[in-house]
Amino acid sequence: MTTTTIGVRPEEMEQYRRELTGYCYRMLGSAFEADDAVQETLVRAWRKADGFEGRSAVRSWLYRIATNVCLDMLRSRQRRARPVDLGPASAVEAFTDATRPDYEWVGPVPDQRVLPATADPADLATAKESIRLAFVAALQHLPARQRAVLILREVLAWQASEVAELLETSVASVNSALQRARATLAARDVEQTAPVTGDQQALLARYVTAFESYDIDGLVALLHEDAVLSMPPFELWIQGRDEFAKWFVGPGSGCRGSRLLPVTGNGLHGFGSYRPDGRGGHDPWGIQLLEFRGDRIAAQHSFIDPALFPEFGLPTHLAPGQVWPAPA
Question: Domain 133-192 falls in which CATH fold?
Answer without folding.
Answer: Arc Repressor Mutant, subunit A (1.10.10)
